[in-house]
Specification:
Length: about 170
């Protein structure tokens, strides 16, 4: 299925991130239209590692890389539910996920939910194995599956930041 054919709900609305004047963001919409949302999805799909930031019970941040898949307009990853990350996500579902690059930025903010066995997207295991060469056995208690439903996605390229910074808000 082509990336453009995957939309089941309204596309996100692009605008400028809210920042102080010191960041020098160009007015919106400016001279350059935003890239198509599909180009953002392509970057998410193509990434190998995703940095998941969660919050410890004492309020301090915790970040760890994971492998993930973009399916059904959401990001799926696995983690041991007994790990620090798993315990954090269980206690506080607010999450930020950042792709690897600081020069070609994609940051996903949203809420995470543990996926029950009967809600695993069809083909998840095969797609994960194709991408990573590893089969995630979600029936194994060490491999809980989580899904991040995006609320906001930030994108930009460092070299064009003042005109390229976009906040994609989901209706």
């Amino acid at each position: 299925m082509a990336v453009a054919d995957q939309h089941r709900w309204p596309l996100p609305i692009p605008d400028r991130p809210v920042t102080t004047s010191g960041y020098g963001l160009a007015p919106w919409p400016g001279d350059t239209p935003p890239p198509p949302w599909e180009s953002v999805i392509e970057k998410i799909v193509a990434a190998r590692s995703y940095w998941v930031s969660s919050t410890r019970p004492d309020g301090t941040p915790h970040v760890m890389p994971v492998w993930a898949l973009w399916l059904d307009e959401a990001l799926y990853f696995s983690s041991d539910p007994r790990s620090r990350k798993g315990r954090n996500l269980s206690a506080n579902p607010g999450v930020v996920v950042h792709l690897e690059s600081g020069d070609d930025v994609v940051i996903v903010e949203g809420r995470v939910e543990r996926v029950a066995g009967d809600r695993v997207p069809p083909g998840f295991g095969d797609a994960y194995e194709r991408k990573y060469g590893f089969w995630v056995d979600i029936t194994n208690s060490a491999y809980a599956l989580y899904v991040v439903q995006p609320a906001v996605v930030f994108t930009w390229t460092e070299s064009e930041f003042p005109t390229a910074a976009i906040r994609w808000r989901f209706p």
